[in-house]
TrEMBL record:
This is Ribonuclease PH. Phosphate binds at R86, G124, T125, R126. Phosphorolytic 3'-5' exoribonuclease that plays an important role in tRNA 3'-end maturation. Removes nucleotide residues following the 3'-CCA terminus of tRNAs; can also add nucleotides to the ends of RNA molecules by using nucleoside diphosphates as substrates, but this may not be physiologically important. Probably plays a role in initiation of 16S rRNA degradation (leading to ribosome degradation) during starvation. It comes from Maliponia aquimaris. It is an enzyme of class 2 (transferase). Homohexameric ring arranged as a trimer of dimers.
């Protein structure tokens, strides 16, 4: 039995509310169970120096956790004077995941920055950030297209992510914090809406896993992403 009482292949309740901020070109609040992430997409008519003059656009991301998003208050990274290694790793992951669904030539020489701020954490924050981040990105691109600034849609497919792992010897979909903290194996699976893989992060701690178990987790992840993509499509319809 999972701590939440869910079935092994059951996602937490997922909701995506769009247009939650006034100024951002695209925004949403994604809730995956008790994990809540605010995602905004901001458009800039410039690109980083390393692609300037190429005619290609750029999508990047920033990620952060609010001080009381967890059970005890954490110090703001700005107070420490630098970002932690975990934060840097996650925001790079979000950026490259979202870029995998973008035709950067069709985007043109402009940058969209997706900011993902964790309001409340209960496991799977990076997966929620990627899933919600795509919705914010979609809304920002819609504004560009409506204004006539771009001719063809640069978003080739949805991008969504979900965690899976081995908890109490059983493969489970969408780990919450009690499961994530005790799982012998856990992984993050990032896929496009067309089923193509973007990135898989899997590791064992105090345990090992077989090829068959990995395949089972991959199947669960595909099921979970299918559910998330349907929710994304409904949110931006």
């Amino acid at each position: 039995m999972r701590p939440s009482g869910r079935n092994l292949s059951e996602m937490r309740a997922v909701s995506i509310e769009t247009g939650v901020t006034k100024h951002a070109e695209g925004s949403c609040l994604i809730k995956v169970g008790d994990t809540h992430v605010l995602c905004t997409a901001s458009l800039e008519e410039r690109v980083p120096p390393f692609i300037k003059g190429s005619g290609q656009g750029w999508v990047t991301a920033e990620y952060g956790m609010l001080p009381r998003s967890t059970s005890t208050r954490m110090r703001r990274e700005a107070q420490a004077g630098k970002q932690g290694g975990r934060t840097v790793e996650i925001q790079r992951l979000i950026g490259r995941a979202l870029r995998a669904g973008v035709d950067r030539n069709a985007l043109g020489e402009r940058q969209i920055t997706v900011d993902c701020d964790v309001i409340q954490a209960d496991g799977g924050t990076r997966c929620a950030a990627i899933t919600g981040g795509w919705v914010a990105l979609r809304l920002a691109v819609n504004k560009l297209m409506k204004a006539g600034d771009i001719i063809s849609d640069p978003l080739m497919s949805e991008v969504a992510a979900v965690s899976c792992g081995i908890y109490a010897g059983q493969p489970v979909l969408d780990l919450d914090y009690p499961e994530d903290s005790e799982a012998g194996v856990d992984g993050n699976f990032i896929l496009r809406g067309d089923g193509r893989l973007i990135e898989v992060q899997m590791s064992a701690e105090g345990s090992t896993f077989t090829r068959d178990q990995m395949n089972t987790l991959m199947g669960l992840a595909e099921q979970g992403v299918d559910e998330l993509v349907a929710i994304q499509r409904a949110a931006v319809a």
